[in-house]
Design a protein that fits this description.
mainly beta; Immunoglobulin-like; 5 domains; four-stranded mixed beta sheet; 5 helices; 7% helix; 43% strand; rod-shaped; disordered N terminus; binds 2-acetamido-2-deoxy-beta-D-glucopyranose
Length: 569
């Protein structure tokens, strides 16, 4: 019934009045053979007490007088308390509440019958009242106050069905339950099926996968509607709890983490803390961190707290070995899904390396006549640190006749700065110190022991400018008179002195006929016996010559005085 607005009693009467006339025609048609008549009324249920069901007198073709005189009354029949025959007006009215559902349940059509009897002459008429349903019941879910609770895994496949409870509507026909509606939602549609008895049942069908992370709970309504006017409905809530499945990978909050660390940082010092989140719940969202195998030795140098994500130093950080580390970090949930990110750690240099001095070449001894600018040594000096920590200053300790010049990168030359004089300084202990410019400064030094080799640059030198010696006459030949002595400040061969007697004449004879000179000792000896009466003194020149090449020499004059003896009477 789709007419607008509630049906009024009047309209019902009009409608069923038409039916009554047809019934009356049929009655007349069969009148000849019939003892009594039969009338059928249709009324909606739940009419007010006193409402007119029908004009019995008119419908049976009896006037009111006949009704009264015949003492018309309802006699037998089912449910006679529902109606009353008003004999004064010849009408049948409602006497009691007529609830179609109570009377017939879901049986249709629903009617009750009774007989009206008249006397003088006796007539018996059957009256059937059909009770029409009105939409006075809404569809009702059995536990409408208790929501339907469903727990569905978010991994449930599309097409999975979830049977729902059915509603009941006590009304019948169009007023009975007609349709189910599911409140609008993304995930589920409703599928209705018919039972063999014609009733409907519904299933909710998953048509789009659930996502617990977006919607952990869905609140839906299942609405059952009937076809009455006005339409009535019943509702039950459906609470869907979406159960987690491990469908989310842990995600780091940065794709690259940057950190820095000083070299030589103590073990246990934390460097950076990474953080990943997992949208899943429970164990599926519990993350443990790890550093994945990396090229280089970062794995030995850093470790990560698997629970907090704090990366700390676990080994020796050496700027000179690794200036930068790249570590992959993993976050793993307990369901086995893994997310990764990268950590780059820059190492800052600390001045932990002293310069290292290597003597590449060193020439010792050096000749004392080497000119200033002669290269004595070539050194390679390196510092493993970087920047100012690795820049080098090189110096010579003390005041020495050398200087250092830088040649190629990291190469330094030790060169002479002055003339040498072996006779005054024959060797140098040269301490070379290399200092870096770090803070604090580190230095190292090395010692060179440089010998100065001799050059024959000194002539022998007699210890006197001239010598005088005495010998008594009549000496025995061969006796030693006296010794000359010279010194040479050169070294070794250059200082080896030979004494020579210069070839001079004494009284027409070579001097060597008077004296001889030991070339090694410088001892002057008489060659013969002297006679004062013949020669009173000898004058000779002694030369001292060293073994250098060329040799150097010097002369000295020696006067030998012969002393008188009383040998002549
Ligand atoms: C140089 O050092 C050596 C040994 O250390 C030492 O015997 C020598 O006297 C030193 N020479 C100088 C000129 O200091
Ligand atoms: C002394 O030495 C020089 C040169 O070595 C030489 O010319 C000279 O004749 C030597 N004799 C004397 C007596 O000076």
């Amino acid at each position: 019934m789709v007419t607008g607005g509630p049906l009024t009693c009047a309209r019902w009467r009009l409608f069923y009045g038409l039916r009554r006339q047809i019934g009356l025609l049929m009655l007349l048609f069969h009148a000849v053979n019939m003892v009594g008549g039969q009338i059928r009324y249709s009324i909606p249920e739940e009419m007010k007490k006193g409402s007119v069901i029908g004009n019995v007198a008119q419908d049976l073709g009896l006037d009111l007088k006949r009704i009264r005189s015949g003492r018309a009354r309802i006699v037998t029949g089912e449910n006679i308390h529902y109606t009353e025959l008003k004999t004064d007006k010849g009408i049948l009215v409602v006497n009691d509440r007529i609830d179609r559902e109570q009377l017939c349940g879901d049986e249709t059509p629903c009617s009750f019958s009774f007989e009206v009897i008249l006397e003088n002459p006796m007539e018996l008429h059957r009256i059937t009242v059909e009770v029409l349903d009105i939409n006075d019941h809404a569809p009702v879910f059995p536990n409408k106050d208790k929501p339907i609770s469903l727990e569905i895994g978010e991994s449930a496949a599309v097409g999975v069905q979830f049977p729902l409870q059915s509603a009941e509507d006590l009304d019948v026909g169009q007023n009975a339950l007609q349709d189910y509606v599911l409140s609008p939602n993304e995930n589920f549609i409703l599928k209705q099926h018919a039972n063999p008895d014609g009733s409907k049942y519904v299933e909710m069908v998953l048509q789009k996968p659930l996502d617990r992370e977006r919607h952990p709970h869905l609140s839906l309504k299942l609405i059952a509607v009937d076809g009455g006017t006005p339409q009535r409905s019943g509702t039950v809530n459906i609470d869907v709890t979406v159960l987690d499945s491990n469908d989310n990978v842990p995600v780091f909050n940065q794709s690259v983490y940057k950190a820095s660390v000083m070299e030589n940082t103590m073990k246990g010092t934390s460097v950076i803390t990474v953080n990943a989140t997992d949208a899943d719940s429970g164990l599926n969202g519990v993350i443990t961190y790890s550093l994945s195998k990396t090229k280089g030795n970062a794995g030995n140098v850093f470790n990560i707290d698997e629970n907090t994500g704090t990366v700390s130093v676990s080994g020796q950080i050496d700027y000179e070995k690794d200036k930068k580390y790249e570590v992959r970090v993993e976050a793993k949930d307990q369901g086995g899904l893994t997310g990764t990110s990268k950590i780059t750690i820059d190492v800052f240099d600390v001045n932990d390396n002293a310069p290292v001095i290597n003597i590449m070449s060193f020439s010792s001894p050096v000749s004392e006549d080497a000119p200033p600018g002669t290269t004595i040594a070539i050194m390679n000096i390196k510092d493993a640190d970087s920047e100012s920590n690795g820049q080098i200053k090189c110096s010579i300790d003390g005041k020495l006749p050398f200087k250092i010049e830088s040649s190629l990168t990291n190469y330094y030359n030790l060169i002479t700065d002055q003339h040498f004089d072996r006779e005054s300084v024959s060797e140098y202990n040269i301490t070379i110190t290399a200092t870096d410019l770090g803070s604090p400064q580190l230095s190292s030094s090395t010692k060179l022991h440089l010998k100065i080799s001799d050059v024959n640059d000194n002539a022998p030198l007699f210890n006197k400018n001239s010598y005088s010696a005495y010998i008594t006459e009549n000496n025995s030949p061969g006796i030693s008179i006296f010794a000359v002595s010279a010194r040479d400040s050169d070294w070794n061969q250059n200082a080896r002195i030979s004494y020579l007697l210069e070839d001079t004449q004494v009284g027409g004879s070579p001097v060597s006929t008077y004296v001889s000179l030991n070339s090694e000792t410088g001892v002057l000896s008489a060659v013969r016996s002297f006679d004062y009466e013949q020669i009173k003194q000898l004058k000779l020149v002694v030369k001292a010559q060293d073994g250098g090449s060329p040799p150097l020499s010097s002369n000295v004059t020696v006067k030998v005085m012969i002393q008188d003896q009383n040998d002549n009477p």
